Amino acid sequence: MVIYKGSEQTLPDTLNLDYSTVQKELENLSEAEKQVALQILKQYSQSGSSEVHQDLIYQDYAEIPVDVETFLYDEQYLGRSLINAEGKKTVYPYWVETLKKIFPNNVDTNYNTLALTGSIGIGKSFVAVLCMLYQLYRMMCLKDPYLHYGLQPIDKITFAFINITMDAAAGVGWQKCQELLQNSPWFMKKGSVSGNTNIVWVPPEGIDLLYGSLPRHILGRALFACFCDEISFVPTQDVELQKKKAKELVSAASARMQSRFMHGEYNPTLLILASSKRTEQSYMETFIEGKKKNESKTTYIVDEPQWVIRTDKDSYVKFKVAVGNKFLDSEVVPLDATEQDLQAYRDKGYTLLDVPMGYYENFIDDINVALTDIAGISTSGTTKYIAGSRLAAIRNDTRKNLFTKELITVGDGPDDTAQYYDFIDKSRIDPVLKSRPLYIHLDMSLTGDATGIGGIWINGKKPTKPGEDPSKDLYYTLAFHVSVKAPKGCQVSFEKNRNFIRWLRNEGFNVKGLSADTFQSYDLLQVLKAEHFNTSVISVDRVDREQRVCLPYLTLKNAIYEQRLDMYPSVRLVEELIGLEKDANGKIDHPPLASKDAADGICGALYNASQHAEEFAFEWGDTIQTTIDVSSAGGEVDRQQIVLNFEEELKKLDPVRAEKSSFIDFGMGAAQDIYSSYLMNGIIL
Fold this sequence. Notes:
Elements: E1 2-3, E2 10-11, H1 19-27, H2 31-47, H3 51-57, H4 68-73, H5 79-82, H6 93-102, E3 113-118, H7 124-140, H8 145-149, E4 157-162, H9 166-171, H10 173-182, H11 185-190, E5 192-194, E6 200-202, E7 207-212, E8 222-229, H12 239-261, E9 270-274, H13 283-293, E10 299-304, H14 306-309, E11 318-323, E12 331-332, H15 339-348, E13 351-356, H16 360-365, H17 367-373, H18 388-393, E14 407-409, H19 431-434, E15 437-443, E16 451-461, E17 474-485, H20 494-506, E18 510-516, H21 522-530, E19 535-537, H22 551-561, E20 565-566, H23 572-579, E21 581-582, E22 588-589, H24 597-610, H25 624-631, H26 646-651
Parallel strand pairs: 3-9, 3-10, 4-7, 4-8, 8-9, 14-17, 15-18, 17-20, 18-19
Antiparallel strand pairs: 1-2, 5-6, 11-12, 11-13, 15-16, 16-17, 21-22
Helix pairs in contact: 7-10, 22-24
């Protein structure tokens, strides 16, 4: 028992309270207030409720609000709209239970933010409207809302319906809100209507209902409840820009709620965000992920498949869907799959989902759309430019990046003596591949993004299986990639960029082409061109306006999907490639907070190599002897044109010999007796 100074009342020790905190609070009250507080605590201790407390709560109410379930189904409120002619309640039980969690009693709100996502057709927008109307109803039950919340007379208590466009805002949440209001005896009695053809219910003075699509539509208002619908579908295909606009809108709404209504830790407002699934990088996905990570106590999240909320669509008979990830395409599991088959899916990294049989054809027709719209699962395959499974198919675990690190920090500082080639492990260089035509691209930067450098070898024609016709398409091998980041306070050194290219040639790499993007590249290319490098400018971001196609990245994607690229295992590069997204204009870009400098490097290198297909239309492994054999064959044997890499064959000759060279017979008699010296690029003296 604790006795307080100046009072004969005692605080019952049966209450589970922090006595020091209670005592501190009581000492801040007047003697009369303290007596009332102690009386309330005593009543709660004895019976679990307090009439005095209830009287205090309802002192500001002209009408005591009903609980949310009564509000839904009593004909005086929304019952006329939510109970059909057969007497059946039309709000899904799932949503009724959700509303009771948000509004635990007739005056309190447990959460300040409600995030509604998941599948389509589950009534997200409808339940958001119900929340808005219950908040409006309780506000209108107050004697003086301005006095109750301590607002200024110039404030305008606002309930806002926001959507991606004005037409959408007026046609979805707002329209449903008006239908419910105008069919409710209670609201029709408390408010009024205006208009002739477009009849609108108008709340009492001091309260405003509006719809809009931009942050400025709620500027300067005392926002008490706000419904932002389809928040992940702001009208732009640029995911990063979409997220920025959505964040601005949500921040504007949240700031106005807190500035007007929050007192201490108490905030009676409700911000509702609703959106169907889009992509893993959309605003709603990142918003929910952030709230879960921070274990938010003020945000309630609904993210369910269609059949969980609409139980009429559920069934006992299920089929399984293997939900993939960045590296695995999702697929419908065969109906006759055994437990061993299912375990094989799990071992590969799939998540198995049980889906009611009624949806089987939807998933067979388009699994990504079905996962998004029906199961409420954001899939990587819906907007990703390159599927992770395609990259996994071309991975060669027997090879490694020539660079020991994918990201290196080298700059132009006076004490920074490091060169890029210091990070190359020479033991990883395959001498056979080293002689192949090598194309290099530099995605230039100074201090911000990293400089991406990629190297691609042309490695003949695509290998074919026995019985297949020989391929006519070039086959590429990823030689290396690296991202160069400047140290803080420094810049990436253009001279070290050039030094790396020179080093490759001096080491015996067959550098056939060097390209760079337009950013700060002209000086680098001019210097290396003077040193007899074949240089060119390639912008991997440039889009053909008519076709809306980015040709460099389309070339890279085709090589990956047709398995004409041999790629060693990588972490950073793979993350960049599977993160690429294509917008409506054909531009290939990276998601927010990500990069694509390494991807740009190999994309530019491969695109440059692809432009020289005719120069290297030979089959690696063919020799001059192959030509002799074909040319000297007798009879009616069909002759075929053999195109060889004579440069490679000539390299096999001993350089600068004093004695006579061997005769080379191409089937037309012995060549002229010469003293040979192999120079380069197919030239013989």
